[in-house]
């Protein structure tokens, strides 16, 4: 069992008198914070935190720490806290915060600054943090008065969790954490009691008259389609979407981040639509259901390049209805009826408004749509069978996915790194229920996010099985976090797709430029040995017949098992652009 549950109180630290660190810790406790992702700094805060029921999750690198916080938020809908020292440590938070900004994930980052009396004197590791975080966070402030700590912590949580969620950075000088509270009048008078630690913080649906217009458009449409993005997960609106899908007989496709917002077993679910609809892709044969739609309902979907297959998939002539918490996303790429509001109440209001419409068209069309979807699924299965059932060695990634899929229960969480890993899981694993999570860093698609995101998800819910799939290139960014996982007894099953190449890069360079650069090919690496070197389990699998036993053993192991799967470097997933490679 994980050691996460037991904060270890510190007996010997010098902060027995109330000081800034206590005020910080109290405020975080009020927001329900149970874990601080941090490597000691600010030390005073981490030393007093156990007294406030907070456990330190000590990352090895700040890059990974920020991503752990992100994974924690995605699975728990709680606002995580990551901390870092000033200067170089702070710079390493930027990648993780940037992903969270693009993926609309709230994080509060507490960044230590130099002593107030050294400000702007070129103090050791002094850096302009406000400038540093400008492009990777939605809110940045510095607190330098002990009487204002509560105010600023609350502002940071409100900024992160309200509206479109995202990262907020609170900068605080080192000496503020150690400053004695004293009997300052303002501090004694503080009466803050609100918990701002979950998101969405404020629920409000779209304007009712817009909802009524949307309902009328959907009821009258010939071929409507819903395309759900990650915002539906963020809003915890999966049940509302699933109810709408059924009650209004609406076909639903998702983006990669929206995978699992509806069950992919439901007869009206298309699966993931976008640039993954290439050969053997799960939703390849569903394309006409999207491209020939006359009314497109977008929910929590930022209409980005990959999700729209470079804006070539969604029909140009359709009428669009766009539900989003961020009014600036609505109409960004598709002129749309604006339903600006939180997805859950808006979808509930839409279902309610539709129940007052004549839905005979929708229900009449349902058997035909279901038949189209069923036949699309059959064709996909038949096309993929050659690979999902392949016995070849080196192993086809599709075969590995088929093995993992047989183990997935509906409480399982799947995490993938960027690159091919996220495309394999999207196309070859099935969401078994509305609300099942498939986490991947599709905000920016940075390499190295997979393992720390899985670790953060484990912290959020240590009881759930977590399967993490990463490429060998991406995993090379974060080997060191295996030690963190070992130290904290995190139970994870980590598959490394060991093809000894930067696969996506090599395949894309070959396609677009006829050759690839020297960066693409690695020497052979024994990842199982790396895992064993830090006390985790590590097994190497070269033959597909060994996969089932390796997974069973990993499921029974209480800690992290790394399964180093030697995969075929010629394998590439169903990206539409790659169809030219056949
Ligand atoms: C931080 C970062 N650096 C570079 C890239 C560009 N990039 C995208 S995919 C890829 C190759 C990834 O290789 P690997 O992790 O081994 O996965 P594979 O495609 O081989 O399965 C690269 C270099 C990126 N997305 N993020
Ligand atoms: Mg690789």
Description of the molecule:
Strand 5, helix 7 and strand 6 form a beta-alpha-beta unit. The protein is globular. The chain has three domains: 171 residues, Thiamin diphosphate (ThDP)-binding fold, Pyr/PP domains (Rossmann fold); 169 residues, Rossmann fold (3-Layer(aba) Sandwich), CATH 3.40.50; 190 residues, Rossmann fold (3-Layer(aba) Sandwich), CATH 3.40.50.970. The protein has 23 helices and 18 strands. The mean pLDDT is 96. The strands form three sheets. It has a six-stranded parallel β-sheet, sandwiched between helices. The chain has a six-stranded parallel β-sheet with strand order 9-8-7-10-11-12. The longest helix is centred in the middle third of the chain and has 29 residues. The relative contact order is 0.11. By secondary structure, the chain is α/β, with parallel strands linked by helices.
Task: Give a quick summary of the entry.
With 582 residues, this protein is of the alpha/beta class.
Using brief descriptors, characterize the structure shown:
582 residues, alpha/beta, Rossmann fold, 23 helices, 18 strands, globular, binds thiamine diphosphate
H/I helix tally? 23
What is the CATH class of the largest domain?
Alpha Beta
Q: What characteristic shape results from the CA principal axes?
A: globular
Averaging pLDDT over every residue, what do you get?
Answer: 96
Strand content: 5-15%
Distance between the termini: 47 Å
**Structural domain count:** 3
What is the level-2 CATH architecture name of the largest domain?
3-Layer(aba) Sandwich
Unreliable residue runs? none
Helicity, as a percent range: 25-40%
Cα-atom Rg, whole angstroms? 24 Å
Strand order of the largest sheet: 2-1-3-4-6-5
Biggest β-sheet, characterized? Answer: 6 strands, parallel
**Topology-level CATH name of the largest domain:** Rossmann fold
Bound molecules: thiamine diphosphate, magnesium ion
In CATH, what is the homologous superfamily of the largest domain? Thiamin diphosphate (ThDP)-binding fold, Pyr/PP domains
Secondary structure: number of strands: 18
* Helix-strand category: alpha/beta
